[in-house]
User: What shape does this take?
Amino acid sequence: PGRAWPGFGVPRGAISHFRQEEAQAIDQELFTEYKFSVDQLMELAGLSCATAIAKAYPPSSFTTSQPAVLVVCGPGNNGGDGLVCTRHLKMFGYQPTVYYPKHPSKPLFEGLITQCKKMDIPFLPEFPAEAAFIDELYGLVVDAIFGFSFKGAVREPFGSILSTLERVTVPIASIDIPSGWDVEKGKADGLQPDMLISLTAPKKAAMHFTGRYHFLGGRFVPLALQEKYALNLPAYPGTDCVLQLT
Amino acid sequence: PAVSPQAFPLPSLPRRQPTVLVVCGPAQNGAIGLVCARHLRSFDYEPTIFYPKRSPDPLYRDFTTQCEKMDIPFLSYLPTEVQLINDAYNAVVDAVLGAEAEAAEGTEPCAAILATLRHIRIPIVSLDVPSGWAAEAGGSGDISPDVLVSLAAPKECARRFLGRQHFVAGRFLPYDVRRKFGLDAPEYPGTECVVAL
Assistant: This one.
């Protein structure tokens, strides 16, 4: 069930797209019933993101002299996913730089920052003032600002950051939800990323995604949970932790 | 987690069902076995776990819950009749003892488990070190794994490994840790987390 189709070119209607509450319910169940820790799932999610990026934008494809990537991390778990992704990108031969203006002072996030810093991943003190600077210095931007729990107004400094990112011409890869988008309805005048990595299962916003690459990541959902929520996930290829949907 | 499929791809398994027995010891090596079992399950293998002495560590207890909730069966005893194991499973994952275990090797239930594993005929995949090798200088009583997965970097006793495939799973090690300990930095293909030595 749900494993009949090959991974590539699955018709959008077949795979389920979730509402915000459903996505939150699945997450909760993974933590409370299955006893996964946030660390475990965040590590697997971040690894998926880096792997998907490596498939769509291999280091050799960059026109900048080094495969430089800017990772913009928001204040919650999406930002945490971004930090994990950054560390794996470094392992995969990229040169990532992080901008992380606001974070919870929890050991999980402090640990992730330390792991990045100890691997010589720079943290910018300020966000590049203009989109043109980003285009010049980096071949890719990873948007790890807001995830599936995002609701309401965008608080600074993220409003200005998103305005700048909307004018960037290098590709943007968004983790789980293009930041600033309503998790269900999208945002027609908002960020238009080239890649979306949906974690666990796509959310309704993904139906409004028009970029080139849509990957599924977060290969940790037990079969029983997939069936309970009728995820209808196509089969991941072999032991890959990502699945290309488009 | 990626290793068993590389060493034993699903289509190549001799039995009709892709069954794998994962034997987990009481400490960290066993906990790694639990995580391995969970990933094998998501890769469509049919793991069964033997975990006779469960760790009280809350993290490891959660690993156990995750496996249970994924309907991975836990055996209540390990058959001493090795033919039963040879017939039921395609391979055994040895996650009994790691590099740190010296005292544990002689105590139950590890001693009995190792005694059984010495006689099975299906392939053994050992995690980090073949269980029991760390304590012994080398003897006829050792188990003989087909595949060894060294974690972080190969251990001293891995020099004696003569099996078919030796993998290293150490891509997560930062460069300065490697430098500090004089560890080789093998080239990992693509985005793989293991490399065959």
Summary: The CA atoms of residues 2 and 38 of chain B lie 12 Å apart. DSSP finds six helices and eight strands in chain B. Chain B touches chain A through 23 residues (CB under 8 Å). The first strand of chain B starts at residue 19 and ends at 24.
